[in-house]
């Protein structure tokens, strides 16, 4: 049999009851949601940093990392609002390789989706309850978002998912900011179409139900660079690129127009240590042009405890097993430098 149904998974409500968020956690999440929403609505002029590992592969090291972010957040709270990246799903270009904690709660063992659902929920709950920081995750599978719907304060739609109808329609029902990345081709029209779809109301099928949404006015763009037909990377974070996007935004008249710049991926030519240089350019450009300052709300940074990357069985604590990341020392220095230059 080529398509085997292994077992029926519990409903999100059953998982909520099995692994609940505490009342203190709910209050912390509500407070964070309000602060983040205020930034995207232009009521708070703090700069957002969505920062963390390429993929959340180990509960202990990820919580250690988020705890470090909590300490530095206190130091820069007047200038910066930090949203930790806890990415529990990992898209794979070829479909091969580690697909994230949702699939493999232990990266060295076989896939186990039920234990993966439990693991990612525990991880996000620990982050909120132990640090007070609610986090971001990537919506790789729209139907699985429901297992974390009470925990996330930010959702990213990846470059390979942004054209997918189900991602767009599901995003239209979320009450938190959703960042739509430009596709790998770099075609910003695709990204803008996704934003328009997500800001509109819809009726569609979701998890076996007929669902209706009112549209999500906090949907916005993430610029991550592009890849041409020869596999070459091209950045789209430069002044001219962002001003062109702003002009297109103004034609569309979307609610709460906002841009997040992804410092890694094609913008860095996959050189993780280029991220600080790109951050400096973006911050400098915001001072050069008032429109840039209004529209560019923050940065997305790939960072972990140890810099670089390792094999899945490498055994180095806090080092990425997917894309290479900045190490903590450089990350902390960069956060503080950005805060001073804002």
Notes on the protein architecture:
This protein is an alpha/beta fold and 342 residues long. It has a single domain, classed as Aldolase class I (TIM Barrel, Alpha-Beta Barrel), CATH 3.20.20. The protein is built from ten helices and 14 strands. The strands form four sheets. The chain has an eight-stranded parallel sheet. It has a two-stranded antiparallel sheet with strand order 6-7. Strand 1, helix 3 and strand 2 form a beta-alpha-beta unit. Helix 3 packs parallel to helix 10. The longest helix has 19 residues. The mean pLDDT is 95.
What would the keywords be for this entry?
342 residues, alpha/beta, TIM Barrel, eight-stranded parallel β-sheet, 10 helices, 14 strands, 37% helix, globular
Low-confidence stretches: none
The averaged pLDDT comes out at 95
- Strand sequence of the main sheet, in spatial order? 2-1-12-11-8-5-4-3
Q: Please, what is the CATH homologous superfamily? A: Aldolase class I
Overall 3D form:
globular
Question: What's a quick, concise take on this entry?
Answer:
The chain is 37% helix and 18% strand. The chain has helices at residues 12-18, 23-40, 59-76, 113-131, 165-171, 188-198, 239-252, 275-288, 290-295, 328-341, and strands spanning 47-52, 80-84, 135-138, 152-157, 178-181, 202-206, 209-213, 219-223, 226-227, 233-234, 259-262, 296-302, 306-309, 319-320.
């Amino acid at each position: 049999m080529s398509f085997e149904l292994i077992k029926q998974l519990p409903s999100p409500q059953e998982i909520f009851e099995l692994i609940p968020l505490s009342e203190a956690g709910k209050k912390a999440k509500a407070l964070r949601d309000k602060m983040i929403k205020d930034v995207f609505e232009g009521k708070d002029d703090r700069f957002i940093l969505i920062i963390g590992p390429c993929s959340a592969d180990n509960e202990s090291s990820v919580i250690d990392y988020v705890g470090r972010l909590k300490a530095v957040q206190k130091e820069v709270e007047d200038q910066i609002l930090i949203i930790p990246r806890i990415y529990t799903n990992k898209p794979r270009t070829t479909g091969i390789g580690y697909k994230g904690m949702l699939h493999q709660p232990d990266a060295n063992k076989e896939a186990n989706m039920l234990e993966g659902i439990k693991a990612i929920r525990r991880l996000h709950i620990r982050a909120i309850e132990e640090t007070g920081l609610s986090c971001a995750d990537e919506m790789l599978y729209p139907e699985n978002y429901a297992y974390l719907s009470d925990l996330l304060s930010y959702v990213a739609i990846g470059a390979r998912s942004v054209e997918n109808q189900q991602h767009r329609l599901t995003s239209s029902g979320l009450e938190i900011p959703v960042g739509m990345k430009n596709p790998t081709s770099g075609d910003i029209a695709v990204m803008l179409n996704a934003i328009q779809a997500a800001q509109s109301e819809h009726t569609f099928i979701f998890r076996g139900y007929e669902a209706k949404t009112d549209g999500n006015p906090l949907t916005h763009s993430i610029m991550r660079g592009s890849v041409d037909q020869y596999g070459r990377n091209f950045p789209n974070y430069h002044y001219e690129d962002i001003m062109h996007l702003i002009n297109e935004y103004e034609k569309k008249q979307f609610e709460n127009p906002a841009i997040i710049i992804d410092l890694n991926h094609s913008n860095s030519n996959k050189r993780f240590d280029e991220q600080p240089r790109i951050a400096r350019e973006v911050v400098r450009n915001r001072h050069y042009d008032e429109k840039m300052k209004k529209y560019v709300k923050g940065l997305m940074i790939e960072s972990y405890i140890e810099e670089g990357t390792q094999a899945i069985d490498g055994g180095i604590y806090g080092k990425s097993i997917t894309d290479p990341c900045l190490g903590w020392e450089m990350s902390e220095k960069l956060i503080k430098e950005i805060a001073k230059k804002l």
